[in-house]
Design a protein that fits this description.
- The chain is an all-beta fold.
- The protein has one domain: Beta Barrel (Sortase, Chain: A).
- An eight-stranded mixed barrel has the order 1-2-3-4-7-8-6-5.
- Strand 7 and strand 8 form a beta hairpin.
- It starts with 6 loop residues before the first strand and ends with a strand.
Length: about 150
């Protein structure tokens, strides 16, 4: 089976290094320990929103501790010899799994509109389930590309 990963996400604060694959299918991507890119979202370094999903618990639980991220922390994406560094800007501690606004090109919660951004830019979004050991809600961390 050829490796599905096309990039690597590094989160220095968490000591995390995890491969990134296309799609958020549980069986094919997330349950294999990858972080998955939401279909139709921007690529690393591009304008728009590079939006990722990862398990909080089990299957390598890459996003288990993203709740510990703080503004200013780095999210580094390495892809084909290029490095893109994003800086954590905002977090949304809890929203519904249907809150599609969080992965929109300009990310803003449609459930809690006070959370998110108002201008176009190059964003990264990390999403995972919350609370731990439940998939009831989503925890969201957003960052912006460091130019």
């Amino acid at each position: 089976v050829r490796d599905r990963a096309y990039a690597v996400l590094r989160i220095p604060r968490l000591g995390l290094v995890v491969p990134v694959a296309q799609g958020i299918d549980k069986r094919a991507v997330l349950d294999k320990g990858y972080v998955g890119q939401y279909p139709g979202t921007a690529g690393p370094g591009a304008q728009g929103n590079f939006a990722l999903a990862g398990h909080r618990n089990t299957h390598g639980e890459p996003f288990r501790y993203i709740n510990r991220l703080r503004a200013g922390d780095e999210l580094i994406v390495d892809m084909r010899g290029r490095r893109y560094t994003y800086v954590v800007g905002k977090t949304l501690g809890e929203t519904t799994e249907r809150d599609t606004g969080v992965i929109a090109p300009v990310p803003r919660s449609v459930v809690k509109p006070g959370y998110g951004y108002g201008e176009p830019g190059a964003y990264i979004t990390l999403t995972t389930c919350t609370p731990e050991y439940s998939s009831k809600y989503r925890l969201v961390v957003w960052g912006t590309l460091r130019s």
